[in-house]
Amino acid sequence: MLEGLTSDERRALDVRLLFAHSEPSIHPEWNRTWLRAIDSWSGYDDLTKSELERVLIAEKERNFYVKGVIDYTYILNECLTHTTAPYIAIFEDDIIFAEGWLAKTAVAMLELSKGSKASTNWLYLRLFYTETSLGWDEESDFWYRNMRLTFALAIVSTLVFLLSIRACSARLRPRLDLATIAVLALIVAPAFTQLVFMIGKYNLFPLQGVVRMDRFGCCTQGLVFPRAKAIDLLHALEGRDGQTDSMIEAYADEQGLERYALAPQVLQHVGLVSSRDNLAINTQSTWAFWFEAQRPEVLKREHSKLAAKVDWKALRWGT
């Protein structure tokens, strides 16, 4: 997170770490010297006795639906209470950051607040998503939704094109006999049409910049909330239990709030073992593929340019 940040970026960032355990001192990283690099770390220092008892029960019963929401709301409240930051970012601990992640995020915030996508009706900017949750969608992709029409047009277009060439070119006519045309139109054209869909929507049309992602945005590895929306979300989640990411999405749907993502991703999930007893295949497939396509030297150049565009003092204090 902090590696490679400029001095202005680091001063603008208030980093608070929650050791999410009723006895935080048993964590192997508790009070390690590297913690001096961040602004604050703690266990559940501000919970009431009854709230801490709820944590103890959830830990004993391995009730992740209760514990997960407690952790999320606790650190969200910690950031809101102890900082004046205009944006609150919540990160999980099984991630790595791309060079320039903070500058790109700050520029995205400016675009959402003052730029071409300016809006006050958005809940978060997503810094991580996995392409395995995305793909061709019947609701938004006409040709995928109307697959029979797509294949029919591919066949007819190929047939008309080849017959036209055969009629107009005496030189090619011997090679374009009717059997060859039938194979090309009825087998080859549909096969290549299917191949286009198999390649994948986001391999053909990669996402770039700040993009709307109201659906299929998986997981809570890294979300950035405007301060006002973070307060509302905190009130909506407090005292409840469930799958945190699903609850956040349900809240956004209920309130009619927009959700955005930064593409390509600036975070990568590197966790191999789930703390919630999820299947290994689900944990290990939570992967940002386009994150891996980014080149370090390009990221470094982009970082320098973008960092110079941001008023880091305003970002820190919300002025």
Automatic annotation (TrEMBL):
Superkingdom in the source lineage: Eukaryota
One Gene Ontology CC term in the entry: Golgi membrane
Record's keyword terms, sorted: Membrane, Transmembrane, Transmembrane helix
Gene Ontology BP, a term: GPI anchor biosynthetic process
MF term (GO), any: glycosyltransferase activity
Matching CDD domains: PGAP4-like_fungal
Protein name: Uncharacterized protein
Organism: Zymoseptoria tritici (strain ST99CH_3D7)
